[in-house]
Model the fold of this input.
Amino acid sequence: MKSKLPNASTSIFAVMSKMAADHNALNLSQGFPNFESDPVLIEMVNQAMKEGYNQYAPMPGDLDLREVISQKTRSLHQKNYNSATEITVTAGATQAIFTAIAAVIEKGDEVIIFTPAYDCYDPSIELFGGKTIPVQLKAPDYKVDWNEVEDKITYKTKMIIINTPHNPSGMIFSESDMLTLQEIVEKHNLLVLSDEVYEHIIFDNNTHFSAARFSALASRSFITASFGKTFHNTGWKMGYCLAPEKLMTEFRKVHQYNVFSVNNPIQKALAEYLKTSDRYLDLSVFYQKKRDYFLELIKDSRFKIIPSKGTYFQMLDFSEISSESDIAFSERLTKENKIASIPTSVFNTDGEDFKQIRVCFAKTEETLREAAIILNAI
Ligand code: PMP
Ligand code: GLN
Done:
């Protein structure tokens, strides 16, 4: 049988987490917190189960939850999404991304992505007959060259996928980036998928410029979000998608036959939990403290470091330590030094290697101290 995804292999997150477990290494590779989600939220889920919310939720999501998502987006970005027609709750951002791509990408369509890119974009595009056109961002600052983006647009281009704050680099799109993007997509009549799973993890008083803030951009964008990233429970796989009605109608046609509806008691709990805005607005301060604590601990290490501007990832440049490939370096660190990270060349066009590994600092202070002892000795 011919494979529909001949180039797909096991994801680097699964590979490195398994290697960490096999070699009893501290796991700073796959992006997940090693501390608990708020017990109040867990109690709300239990309560919703006891109250009997154990059967199918409505196809697009619990209406109370869609309403608080709508209010949250209005208050943060001054943009109204109709909870009835423009918001769908999904099984994590991954499903939202897949569904958006499935809904609009046809055979022969070209989709521009920025590499290093999160690993699910390209296979989803390929599965629906689309072609990924990568634009390689360069270390150390990973800034977008918008002229290069325009040069890659052809009559086949259908969509541009962006991710801000950006995994793995920790770069963020500025207001000027978003305005330029808006100009380009209007001029060439393109769709946008704006992956904003780290929307609430942004540092140094920077602003998250959601695609929702720019009306012409929002009118042609799917925006994807992840509760797993925001509320420290990546294993719950809950997220959502925002899009104007015309796009959301198509999104839901795919959603209803793929997933139909997602976890009902968790939606009920999130609807209640999200009413207190501090629960997500405090996240940047929470993670900035972790970033700063960690960077202070490793400031005398031999890694070259530019502080992450958002996400809970930090890039570590090892070019002054070793000339190995990033894959060999991170494998050796896992097996010999007992610390696991992600080699970031796997996310780049043609595996370009900037000698940077990614570590996740969504960890307890104790784990960060243990990690620092190892990293400082390398
Ligand atoms: N996009 C990016 C950039 C990510 O880092 C992740 C991982 N959280 C996702 C999408 C997928 O999110 P989820 O776990 O909610 O499916
Ligand atoms: N988003 C997580 C990361 O970047 C991993 C998610 C996954 O394992 N697929 O590490």
Remarks:
- Residues 31, 92-94, 118, 163, 167, 195, 197, 226, 228-229, 234, 237, 239 surround 4'-deoxy-4'-aminopyridoxal-5'-phosphate (ligand 1) (CB under 6 Å).
- The mean pLDDT is 98.
- The first helix runs from residue 12 to 22.
